[in-house]
Specification:
One of its GO terms (molecular function) is galactosylceramidase activity. Keywords: Glycosidase, Hydrolase, Signal. It holds the Pfam family Glyco_hydro_1. Its EC number is 3.2.1.21, 3.2.1.46. This protein is of the alpha/beta class and 507 residues long. It has a single domain, classed as Alpha-Beta Barrel (TIM Barrel). It is 43% helix and 14% strand. An eight-stranded parallel beta barrel has the order 1-2-3-4-5-7-12-14, surrounded by five helices. Bound molecules: 1-deoxynojirimycin. 1-deoxynojirimycin (NOJ) binds next to loops. The site of 1-deoxynojirimycin has 9 residues, from loops.
Length: 507
């Protein structure tokens, strides 16, 4: 009898292990890694590049950055791009997501003056990837607006949509023959809320009442104009896709009460629904409950119209459906309460409009970034919600990753745990029928983490920022990710034998 129990336990255990191993990613699932121009390129004023809002902000006021550093040299990818592609080959990446610096291509922001050295740099980068069958995924805007356009109001000026459309045309004309995946904007929430409604990113406008909303509306129109232009003028011959990336962290209710459920819904709408709904919902426009709330608060505050500027019918139609895929940057989660965990916030502001509190339970692992915790199955929770709300568009997770301090060095077990948990959550998405097509790890290498400078490190490769050569060294997580990509599955037993990296045959 005892033997029987033991035997059946062994069988169950083996089956369990098999089930785990059977959960495989399809061969055409795109595994990649991501970076952004200002965070890696350096060469801030080389070969005709114009000044961007980060150059300007930091050179004017260096103390806004935690360790008083900047992106002047960063990982120096402008000079190390061949090494970057070598790292992609070492990892066996299918794709690489990177961004173009608008002022490197158009130094003043306007399309009357194109910088040939900027075009040449990106041509070289792209061609080097293609040589090794790595699919380039190109973000047109990852936060580095030409300063000259900021001087004219940046995203607070409705003409930004024309300026962006002109820039996008230059991009499609020059790179669209080889690049088949374009992302217009990276993270509208961070551009608009953190940069315009707050002081957490350049241009630190801190215009709390309306900054977020004004920027949001203009950005969405800019995205839509570029999308339609690509569709009409380039897609027929180039045959690529054009989408947008929105940061979608998961916000679930702290309890099952109706108040907390509504609080979580309002939080989701205020954080990312205001960008996703106008594009991906069937009715278009800003999400209903949130719009009503801002309108109501605005009236109470004595405004003659809502601080959230509604779209005209024409604009609504322009924006609705304007994306070939939904790029999701997902990192973390919070539990939302209607009454608890509230903090003092400026009035009026997006935060006051939402008027909810949130919390991360103590047993969710913490990273080097205050906002980043490991929440159970949170990619799945986010994508399942988006699938149901927006009729299951094609999704790419365009960023996901974990921060450590420099001191953690190469043995980054926290990151390994995080990536493995992410893989399980991705597999849950695939099992559920979510149209998830790919996943980009943030980041290929350590880079300039915005206001946190070089304090918080996200790289699969460590970068030595004190070394003029900016030497890159693979961390343990690089080997684990490589193993996952190669086997299209998560093997919990896998431990790299050494941290010596090689390029596998065929890469
Ligand atoms: C999202 C942003 O797109 C990226 O630039 C940033 O470094 C990561 N989050 C990590 O904070």
């Amino acid at each position: 009898m005892k033997l029987l129990v033991v035997l059946s336990l062994v069988i169950v255990a083996i089956q369990g292990a098999n089930v785990r191993h059977q959960r495989q990613f399809p061969d055409d699932f795109l595994f990649g890694a991501a970076t952004a121009a200002y965070q890696i390129e350096g060469a801030w004023n080389e070969d005709g590049k114009g000044e961007n809002i980060w150059d300007h902000m930091i050179h004017t006021n260096p103390n806004v950055i935690r360790d008083v550093t900047n992106g002047d040299v960063a990982a120096d990818s402008y000079h190390n791009y061949k090494r970057d592609v070598e790292m992609m080959r070492e990892l066996g990446l299918d794709a690489y997501r990177f961004s173009l610096s608008w002022p490197r291509i158009l130094p003043t922001g306007m399309a009357n003056e194109v910088n040939p050295a900027g075009i040449a740099f990106y041509n070289n980068y792209i061609d080097e990837m293609l040589k090794y069958n790595i699919t380039p995924m190109v973000t047109l805007y990852h936060w580095d607006l030409p300063q000259k356009l900021q001087d004219l109001g940046g995203f607070a000026n409705p003409l930004i949509s024309d300026w962006f459309e002109d820039y996008a045309r230059v991009v499609f004309e020059n790179f669209g023959d080889r690049v088949k995946m374009f992302i217009t904007f990276n993270e509208p929430r961070e551009i608009c809320y953190q940069g315009y409604g707050g002081d957490l990113k350049a241009p630190i406008l801190n215009s709390t009442a309306m900054g977020t909303y004004l920027c949001g509306k203009h950005l969405l129109i800019a995205h839509a104009k570029a999308y339609h232009m690509y569709n009409k003028e380039f897609k027929p011959t180039q045959g690529g896709q054009c989408g947008i990336t929105i940061s979608v962290n998961w916000f679930g209710p702290a309890t099952d009460s109706a108040e907390d459920q509504m609080a979580a819904e309002i939080k989701r709408q205020g954080e990312w629904g205001i960008y996703a709904h106008p594009i991906f919902s069937s009715e278009g426009g800003f999400p209903k409950e949130f719009s009503e709330r801002v309108a109501e608060k605005s009236a109470q505050q004595g405004y003659r119209r809502s601080r959230l500027p509604e779209f005209t019918e024409e604009e609504k139609t322009l924006v609705k459906g304007a994306s070939d895929f939904f790029g999701v940057n997902h990192y973390t989660a919070r539990l939302v309460s209607a009454t608890l965990y509230k903090e003092a916030v400026p009035v009026p502001s997006l935060l006051d409009d939402m008027d909810v509190g949130h919390n991360a339970p103590d047993d969710w692992a913490t990273s080097a970034s205050s906002w980043l915790v490991l929440a159970p199955n949170s990619i799945f929770n986010a994508l399942k919600h988006l699938k149901e709300r927006y009729n299951n568009p094609n999704f790419y997770v365009t960023e996901n990753g974990w921060s450590t301090y420099y001191e953690t060095g190469l043995m980054d077990d926290g990151r390994v745990t995080y990536y493995r948990a992410s893989m399980e959550s991705l597999l849950n998405c695939l099992d559920d029928g979510i149209n998830l097509k790919g996943y980009m790890a943030w980041s290929l290498m350590d880079n300039f983490e915005w206001m946190q400078g070089y304090v918080e490190r996200f790289g699969l490769y460590q970068v030595d920022f004190s070394d003029p050569a900016r030497t890159r060294t693979p961390r343990k997580s690089a080997f684990v990710y490589k193993h996952i990509i190669k086997h299209r599955a998560v093997d919990y037993e896998y431990e790299p034998e050494s941290l010596v990296m090689t390029i596998d045959e065929g890469h």
